[in-house]
Amino acid sequence: MSHLNRLLIAVGLVSWCLTADVSSAPVPAPTIEGPVTGGLGTPFIAATTFDLSQVGYVEEEFFISGTATAFTNVGPLGSDGHWTAIPGDTAAYKTRILVHRPATPSRFNGTVIVEWLNVSGGLDAAPDWIAAHTGMIHEGMAWVGVSAQFVGVEGGSGLLGLPPRPLKTIDPARYGSLVHPGDSFSYDMFSQAGQALRHPPGPDPLGGLRVKALIADGESQSAFRMVTYIDAIHPIAAIYDGFLVHSRGAGGLLGAPLSEPPEPAIGIPSPTLIRLDLDVPVLTLQTETDLLLLQSLAARQDDTARLRLWEIAGTAHADAYTLVSGATDLGKSPDAADLVLTSSPLGAFTCGQPINSGPQHFVVKAAIHWLDRWVRRATPPPSAPRLAIDPGPPAHFVLDAHGNATGGIRTPELDVPIATFSGGGQSGSLACLLFGTTLPFDAATLHALYPTHRAYVSAFNHATLRAVRAGFVTRPDAKLMRAAAARSDVGR
Questions:
Q1: What's the mean pLDDT when you consider all of the chain?
Q2: For strand 242-246 and strand 282-286, is the pairing parallel, antiparallel, or unpaired?
């Protein structure tokens, strides 16, 4: 940025603060093109791999374009998240949104989950669609993935060190016209994606479905972006009706800057809390890995009328369901509750232990179910106990006799265990450290715990009922979990 531009922005800050209503600013409606076809014939994304028509859904892709705004701050960015952001530079952009919606309008429940696509692997990925798609489909929600970040569109290094696979390189015939001006503009691009869904100025990405609620969602690096978006952008954009923040870090280097080069570098503090003057619900969902490896323990917050924090025992930042089995799950098979033992989930590297195969995806679906009720009916989710942590140093989880974490959200996989599930204990690359571990019990331990199959199934079913009554497992998933226990070999 030139010295002249910096001077103009500084003068603009004074004018803005004196004349503008900083509490709100209209989000422009982008130009919409689509449905997009051509190129290799299908949208490129790391997500589910089955034909959505099998579950009564339609997949369509659209391009949105316009002028995006970067932001700067007025006053310091304090740890309390009570920030004031104002517009800075502008730049032209063109990106894509991917829509999964019910083919039959009567099946649509009115809620759209808008996921900030994750680029940690060097490509656009939809981890929360993978984790929770069966729940969204069961409840009739629509899902929209937004290519909000530079790496997913133009290329560059993802955090996991995998070879980059940006849209424009993978399918230049389809995506060659896309333009991403940099991640400083990503927040406004995400706002404009929401505006395109609420008030489409051209082709309707939702095919005429009537939107009753837009819920923004981000997992991992995208959750970092969600925190910054909630604290800085939501107060002036007011596009989304609620937020799911899934697997955030503490802030600072484990957070997302408000602005970054070539725009002015505006980092955020560590810890960064979610602001408490919220006008919409926020549910933060954390795994064991997030609390210690990503240091979000420092950003723990008490529940409020607009804020819930759920910490899930026995879970890792990413796991076998998201990386292996979830992509083909149609929501009808007990396989979704089985142990998946693999040390090479992505094929690009091998971890020292089998990665986590814990119950996270079941709780993600419950979180989305409750967040929808909270937004639409003002019915808040249950408050959850925190994971038990010994502050150390170093801080560590308080474990039970089987090596599983105590406290937190309990599922039958933890209370009637057949393995030790951990968000840590792994070796190898950074990706492996994020994937946690699964250590199945040996035959002697299983026999001592469950001398008969009937004893195991009875205990498992009682634990499942407790989880359902507590609100952390949905009834459709409980049915699959019980079926998986009944057909297992435990105690036989």
A1: 94
A2: parallel
Mean pLDDT of 437-455: 98
User: How many CB atoms neighbour CB 284 within 10 A?
Assistant: 27
Residue 63: name the closest of 174, 164, 165 by CA.
Answer: 174
CA dihedral sign, ordered 226, 232, 233, 235: positive
Count Cβ atoms below 10 Å from residue 362 Cβ, excluding itself.
30
Please report which confidence band the pLDDT of residue 24 belongs to, taking 50, 70 and 90 as the band edges: low
The pLDDT score that the predictor gives to residue 18 is: 35
Which residues share a beta bridge with 46? 125
Q: Which two tokens stand for residue 438?
A: 């699964």
Mean pLDDT of 362-391: 98
Question: What CA–CA distance (Å, rounded) separates 335 from 2?
Answer: 58
Tell which residue, 277, 265, 271, 275, has the closest CA to residue 72: 265
pLDDT digits (tens, 9 = 90+) for 43-71: 999 999 999 999 999 999 999 999 999 99
Phi (first) and psi of residue 379, to 5 degrees? -100, 105
Which pairing describes strands 242-246 and 213-219: parallel, antiparallel, or unpaired? parallel
Place of tokens 């308080």: 398
Strands 57-73 and 85-102: antiparallel
CB-based burial, 98-121: b 16+ in 10 Å, e otherwise: bbbbbeeeebbbebbbbbbbbbbb
| Cα separation, 232 vs 19, whole angstroms | 19
Q: How confident is residue 25, by pLDDT bands cut at 50, 70 and 90?
A: low
21-25: long-range pairs with CB below 8 Å, 24+: 22/74, 22/84, 22/86, 22/235, 22/236, 23/235, 23/236, 24/235, 24/236, 24/238, 25/87, 25/236, 25/237
Q: Which residue type is seen at 97? A: I
- Residue reference for tokens 């589910």: 48
Number of C-beta neighbours around residue 42 at 10 A = 11
Give the up-direction half-sphere exposure of residue 328: CA atoms within 13 A in the CB hemisphere.
6
Q: Domain coordinates of the chain in residue numbers? A: 23-280
